[in-house]
Amino acid sequence: MQMLSSDLISELLLGMRIDGVHYNRIQISPPFGVRFGVDPGRAQFHFIARGTVYLRTDGGAVHTLCGGDAVLLPRGGLHSLLSDPGIPCRDVTDFDARMICKRVDDIHVCKTEICRSNDTLIFSGCMEFDLGSMHPLVAMMPEVMQVGDLIDRNPEILPILEAMAREVKAERAGYAGILTRLADVVSASLVRDWVECGCGDAAGWVEALRGPRMGRVIAALHRDPGRNWTVAAMASEMGSSRSVFAERFLAATGVTPLRYVTELRMRLASQWIGRDRMSIEIVAERLGYGSQAAFSRAFKRTIGKPPGAMRDVTPVDEAREIGVA
Question: Which of 11, 38, 226, 279 could be bridged to 288 by S-S, CB 3.0 to 4.6 A?
Answer without folding.
Answer: 226
